[in-house]
Amino acid sequence: MRSGSDIGIAGLSVSLVRQVMSAVFTDLDERFPDERVVATTAADGSFRVAGLSVASDSLRIGGPGWMDAKVEIDEDSPTQAGRVEIQPALELAGRVEFPGGRPCANVDVAVYDVDPDSDDARQAREVFGPPGDPSVLTECDGTFHSGCLAAGRYWLEFRGGTPQVIRRVAGPFDAGTRDLRVELVCGSTIRGRVVGPDGQPAERVAVRARADGRQGTSGDAKSDRTGAFVIGGLDRGPHIVELEADGFLTWTRAGVRVEGDALAVRLDEGLAVAGVLRSADAGDETFVHIVVEPVDAEQPAETRRGQTDVNGHFRVTALTKGRWRLRIDGDPPPVVLPETVVEAGSESLELRTQPRPPAPVDETKDDEAPADDGR
Fold first, then answer.
1. One-letter-per-residue 3-state SS of 14-31
2. Which of these, 300, 308, 299, lies nearest to 326 by C-alpha position?
3. Co-location of 315 and 337 in the same domain
4. pLDDT tens for each residue of the chain, 375 residues long
5. Which of 64, 186, 283, 290 is 20 to 30 A from residue 348's alpha carbon, by CA?
6. With contact defined as beta carbons under 8 Å apart, do 136 and 147 qualify?
7. Beta strands in 176-288 (DSSP E)
8. For the CA atoms of 158, 162, 163, 169, what is the dihedral angle to 10 degrees?
9. Domain count, the chain
10. How large is the greatest C-alpha to C-alpha distance in the chain, in angstroms?
11. Could you tell me if 115 and 163 lie in one domain?
12. Does the residue 231 lie in any domain?
């Protein structure tokens, strides 16, 4: 092993990565990586590994302070690894503080190789979700160290903390910078308590706040066992607060001011449509997904989904007053439901799927039949 400056590196772990057949799903041709350390680099950086398979093996070489290097086995020379270069692992380090120098503790610091507020990053998050690399927390004195970075420029995202700060993205910074100073602003909070229709505390209800009619902050939380919730890290402007829980109508309020009186939220079950779905043809799938879409229902009217049980019974809740259309989900749907529009609150529906069309007749088979010669 050689570093970028052509110096041999001792003490690095050499791991064999082998693709092995799954021991669980024996009927599927699925393979999973099995990794184990098989060697350590010598004083001059050399190493030797025997018994490699070109088809399924590779090597991973790394150690503290260095980026991992992957070595694919050369099909022409499987016993000769040749020269392998490894790059030093760099870090970004510094301190975050409030105006006046007070440290920001327990702030999440995430590292991105692109600006997380750019269009490309937002589109990537929509497809792949949040980045998988774990963030680091600032210490009580506001310091942080984010390591194992390759050479390059990076953006830092700061959020959370005790007290919670307003989210900020700073950068780009060169990997290896260790004297960063970033100033953050203490955020404001929206508090409240949520109960169910029976007046009992509603736990684990999703609560979101977003800037109302302007560019600004957003945040989310879940209610605790007492129904209380706190959303922090918000700016001083008005926000829209929205609560969602399975089986209940979405609760929304605009123009909510931070640091104001606690919100008192009572969830409403709304109305339901329920009944049984019968199959017109024997052999239709037992379980189907039912989609209930608003036609002229009162707001907030959102598409809801449910599933039939083994006997075809279904119940879809959290509907507002008005008319709703029922259809079977799938592309193509496993069965077809005739046009069905019902009033919310209809809970004794008897629905029947449409018969499947007959299979087309293959006329070529008759044309290719041998002629009857009368024998």
1. EEEEEEEECCCCCCCCCE
2. 308
3. yes
4. 566 566 788 889 988 887 766 555 455 455 566 788 888 989 888 888 877 766 667 888 888 888 888 888 765 555 555 678 888 889 999 999 999 999 999 999 999 888 888 887 777 666 666 555 568 999 999 999 988 898 999 999 999 999 999 999 999 999 999 999 999 999 999 999 999 999 999 999 999 999 999 999 999 999 999 999 999 999 999 999 999 998 899 999 999 999 999 999 999 989 999 999 988 766 555 689 999 999 999 988 889 999 999 899 999 999 999 999 999 998 888 888 899 999 999 999 999 888 766 666 766 655 555 555 555
5. 283
6. no
7. 180-183, 188-195, 206-211, 218-222, 228-234, 239-244, 251-256, 263-266, 271-278
8. 0
9. 4
10. 109
11. yes
12. yes
Look at the block and give the residue holding tokens 């990053």: 121
- 329: domain CATH number? 2.60.40.1120
In a domain, 214, yes or no: yes
Q: Which of 135, 132, 181, 180 is nearest to 161 (CA)?
A: 135
* 349-352/271-278 β-pairing: parallel
pTM: 0.69
Beta bridge partners of 14: 39, 61
Cα–Cα distance for residue pair 116/121, rounded to 1 Å: 5
Query: What is the extent of the structural domain holding 243?
Result: 188-266
- Token output for 188: 């404001």
Laid out side by side, the sheet with 31-40 consists of 31-40, 13-21, 57-62, 69-72
Chain position carrying tokens 């290896």: 176
The domain spanning residue 153 has which CATH number? 2.60.40.10
339/286 same-domain check: yes
Residue 373 placed within a domain: no
